[in-house]
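Example record

One chain of 627 residues, shown exactly as stored in the release files.
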Amino acid sequence: MCGIAGFTTTQTSSNSYNDAIASMVNAMKHRGPDAQNSWCNDSVYLGHARLSIIDLSEASNQPMLSADGRYVIVYNGELYNYRELKLELQRVSFGSKEQAYFFKTNSDTEVIIAAYSRWGASCLDKFNGMYAFALYDTQDNSLFITRDRMGIKPLYYSVNNKQLVFGSEIRTLLNSGFVQRKLNKAVLNEYFLYQTVHAPNTIIEGVKMLMPGTYLTWKNGEIKQFRYWNINDFAKESESLDYNLTCKKTEELLFKAVERRLVADVPFGAFLSGGIDSSAVVGIMSKLSSRKVETFNVSFDESEFSESKYAKKVSELFNTQHHEIKLKPQDFLNQLPNALNAIDHPSGDGPNTYVVSKATKEAGITMALSGLGGDELFAGYDVFKRMKSVDSKAYLNIFPSWLRAVPASLIKAKNKSVAGDKLFEVLMQEKFSVKDVYPVSRKIFSKQQEKLLLRKNENPLKDIIGMIKKPDANHLLSYVSLLEMNTYMQNILLRDTDQMSMAVALEVRVPFLDYKLVEFVLSVKDEHKFPHSPKKLLIDSLNGLLPGEIINRPKMGFTLPWSDWMKGELKSFCEEKLRALSKRDFVNEAAVMSLWEQFLKDNKKVTWSRLWHLIVFENWLQTNQID
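Predicted structure tokens for this chain:
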């Protein structure tokens, strides 16, 4: 796990270019504290910051050249099937024109170079991992840049006057001197409504995010993009299996996904909340590992709810080396400035992940497995039930929206809360369908608040959802999985996990997002995974691995007293940021400050989560000097 950076140029090398690549690498050295290096010629500059996970020797430092010197690579991530590919690349069939590759290292980096050397872009079809890499062909003077299928590892880029600039973080690009620190005002409403900006757009004007399962080529100033894998293609029945065989195959794929992610030359462990997903990962790890699994749980004694007792139960069940890291709320508050500074692309989440990652890293762990993706893949969120209900009530479309206004208004008048506002907006949609209702479920503000707050009102999520084709009636839950994975998971959960864990040089692996597991579970029809009980298909596939106490426990989450903090210890900080934000020309000053006042007066329609992402945003603008 590392950080990569680079840019192309049509001019001969100069000291300014050397300074630019050095500045880019320096901006991301937290991602790779073990080594920082660069490489250049008259066309391309490449930089790398390394966090050593596989083959810790200096021979595996990057940028790395191929054995024949033709290719140069900078790579961030892990290739889980690199050993199998290495064996294939070391031998050739009788009579073949292919040549065996003679490896100098034990790294997965060199396997990628060898694979591209033999198969070109089609090597991506063979890769199973999380990665973003740039590979330069010195003979052809061309650059090949790509990102993994699920978009676990980030890759940002900018094109200006045929110059390509890229990196693992937005800060990397901003420190190049080639990208202006200019706010992308066209997507501000998207951030305000959904506490993020959805790829390929970003919060910086002119900076894009390479989409998952995509590669980009550069040659002679010409840039092209190609999609080599698309998650949206798999929400359909690929093979007809009964329920028992479906469970058996799911179990096989999940065990294989975890096994692939246990390859490392450094100490590793797992995040353990005591929920179904993290417990499943730990349970499988304990079955596969020859040594005790290290598990980590961060708890707060003062929290209203504590998951630590469930995590302890799981650790005892699987005989793990358990670390319960107890923090007081003040400990979290003390770390909050560092967590905010670690944010590369703003969102309404993240500090929680920073605290857990930092505590895990300080315990001597460099790589950890996470249960992220389990809810999205196995229909674990309430949104799956809600969208199933919406789909079953399509008959409401016989009533025009103006006729639905009467009962909707009555409901809103009776339920003076965030839920009441959302239900009103759902009933007032032009069409009562999953496609139209889903964007409302993920919104932060009500329609009325949105109109008051923003100078410009649009709902960009509808455009993103419009590109996801709804599958047949047997795969509605897979459709909702696609909506979740393409929006919330991709643009908040994965991005925050990467930027917050890498801020403390911790690698996080996510077995639930193994692409082979994802392809299969998306193909499973609804009747095999209907959520009448929490993640039934996952639980049944584990074949009794988890006890009923864990399966039937209430769903919690990482709870912190944010509302109390924002009215107490953080009040002056929050008010200062909101007041500064209110002065900006793209928002309504009175509306911003009115929200703050309503929050302080305990108005049920203005919860802390409707303000926190605005506070984070203003702090991020100031920290990064964005105009």
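Notes: The chain has four domains: 2-229, 235-379+478-551, 382-471, 562-623.
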